[in-house]
Amino acid sequence: MEPDTFIEFYNDATESCLENEEWDEVLRYAGLLENYVGDEPLPFTDLIIARGRALAAIGKGEREAALVDTLRGLIATATEHGLVLVIPTMEQALAQVNT
């Protein structure tokens, strides 16, 4: 596999696990991607990792204010970089936390 293919795989695996509410698997793929990029993370991989961890935490029932702040920051980052496809799931998670 070429390097960007690994990133695509981890991103796709994370998305699939999020859709299926497999929170532990989301966390596992976030860790694998973090290990893969190591000392050379990219803004996109940072977003994938942080988003997966935040959504998994909400999926597991966490509702701390810091988590809400993290999601808002990730939405801002995604918006800034034009990554609009990842925003709806984060907005849905925020709605869950606020209800």
Overall pLDDT level: 92
The tally of strands reads 0
**How much beta, percentage-wise?**
under 5%
Tell me the name of the CATH class: Mainly Alpha
The gyration radius over C-alpha positions equals 13 Å
The best one-word shape is globular
> Which fold name corresponds to the CATH topology?
Serine Threonine Protein Phosphatase 5, Tetratricopeptide repeat
- SSE ordering: HHHHH
Distance between the termini: 43 Å
Work out the helix count: 5
How many domains, as an integer? 1
Largest sheet: none
Description:
- The protein is mostly helical and 99 residues long.
- The protein has one domain: Serine Threonine Protein Phosphatase 5, Tetratricopeptide repeat (Alpha Horseshoe).
- Helix content is 77%, strand content 0%.
- The protein has five helices and no strands.
- Helix 1 packs antiparallel against helix 2 and helix 1 runs parallel beside helix 3.
Quick take:
This protein has 99 residues and is mainly α.
Question: Mind sketching the topology for me?
Answer:
Blueprint: H1 3-19, H2 23-37, H3 43-59, H4 65-80, H5 87-97
Name some characteristics of this structure:
globular
